[in-house]
Amino acid sequence: MRLMLLFLILATIGLAQQGTAQSGHTKSGPEFSTANMNMTANPCVDFYQYACGGWMAENPIPADQSRWGTFEQLADQNRTILRGILEKASVDDPKRTPVEQKIGDFYASCMDESGIDKLGIQPLDPELKRIDAIQSKDQIVDELVHLHLIGVAVLFNFYASPDFKNSTQNIADVDQGGLGLPDRDYYFKPDAKSVQLREQYVAHVRKMLELAGEPAAKSAADADAVMHIETALAMGALDRVSRRDPNKTYHKMSIKELEGLSPSVDWPKFFAGLGTPTFSDLNVSVPDFFKDLNQVLANTRVADLKTYLRWHLLHSEAPLLAKPFLDENFHYYGQILTGTTQLEPRWKRCVRATDDDLGFALGQKYVEQNFPPGAKARVLGMVQEIETMLGQDIQSLDWMTATTKQQAVVKLHAVTNKIGYPDKWRDYSGVKIVRGEAVGNDERATEFEVRRGMSKIGKPVDRGEWTMTPPTVNAYYSPLQNNINFPAGILQPPFFDNRKDAAVNYGAIGSVMGHELTHGFDDQGRQFDAEGNLQNWWTTDDAAEFEKRAQCFIDEYSAFTPVDDVHLNGKLTLGENTADNGGVHLAFMALMKSLENTPQPAKIDGFTPQQRFFLGYSQVWCQNVRPEASRMRAQTDPHSDGRDRVNGVLGNMPEFREAFACHAGQPMVHAPACRVW
Ligand SMILES: [Zn+2]
What we know:
This protein has 677 residues and is α+β, with helices and mostly antiparallel strands.
């Protein structure tokens, strides 16, 4: 039901939970406080425990959560605000605006639990009949078109994206996809835990097929067939670390050449069915995947392909179906994959569904209530301070020559800042929302988004558009647009808090700003130029110096173990770790500049501004995580876990060492101390 963030490259500050979602049992709102600390811990031994130990002890993970931290608490607060907006909008009042009618009726339809339960599988009957009617492989492509239009991205992904080497233009992009497990590696890893997860996955597919009416005698073989198809697709898919290298996902070719890789798909028919404008060239992100796809289509029986399509339809729509589907979906994706024991309350799932499908209508109401006009200017002022610091930082680097420095500054000056919400709100007047049709509303809203995406192919890129909705607690840098984006949802306490001193705010939101800005210069971002084109602007020697310093991060973070003996993947998390380290450094520079005229600033709560800065940064990352979720994230999340985001960064900083009088040999004083920016 949900559109993935269909962008090859987007560097964020955090990754939303997969499978299930947040819920709230917040004792107090998320905010910076010395009460969150554990003063008995030694800051030079484990700063994370020192800054967050009190919070961690007081905030166990709620039953319906896989991870619970400051991010989740704030997201939960935002969701409560959205609930208020949606409950008001769902009252059937003729005076509602068109936007209120859409979000209100969408939400009310999703909330109608008894109505949904009474319908059972019925909302999917027309879809299942379409699949049943397929007689031959030639007819598969028509169904591919239809399923892609309603957001069921079977076999592969297809979307519009800025051309890596002509970034002001959108081109069509076909990419690997079509899997039901969280990552391609889940299909192959030989360890006992991974084998078990695969067995449980096949059992889950089987159960879902049975719930949709398949006889038990047939469902076991069918679930095996699904697993067989997905494993074959996964074989050709590129791994996550390789996908971070833009040169490995850029292969512009003609439709004719794509037909050469995958003649089994009638590509012109597929594109025409989706209503794309005419085009001749496109990006085939992973050519090997499309060779394998051809084999899958050639070697698989029609009956098995139909089962695969049926499974993905059920999987995609399960969150809006009757209780048995909902529960079985949660059992695998919530309980088994993330260790969450309880499904979150319906209103939270429905707020999320509305945000997913009509997020810029809902977001418009959120901004009216929660982001006063003055906030934008204050945030912008702070972003500009951080940008000035990066300019100074670049000039001060002893490892980079003047030639590359000059190019880096050109890129820095070209960065644009987007704060809070889009200048122009998305027009949803083309989406029909009917009270009582939870699945239908979702399909129509998704089709609207898919068609909107298709219409961009061959057109100039609209850099004013956002890929996160305004209430989202996250932020991102887009290397293809060279812009940083801060949704209103994150510009709230404890990230940004008018009641707190500047040191805390620099540590929290200042570090987030620095993080996003640094993404323009991490291992991935640095490969794009000021205009967002994939083009090298580094001298060979400077690039080698960069790689050498990046390797220090790879080695450092690879040694961290967020759960049991599971190590972080230093290469997968390199961009985020680079951004964390650079971001805190830049924000600290900005704090020091703000203190220039205050030689002896007063302590607050017994802490100097420098100490409060590091505490402010750290408390943004206070969290508790279930071991199952930690294990999954270590494989799939490009971000390190909270503890390592704090201890990893601060252990590299001489400024931290000085602020807390730590000495060489203590755990929070890393040797070597890694630094790029
Ligand atoms: Zn990031």
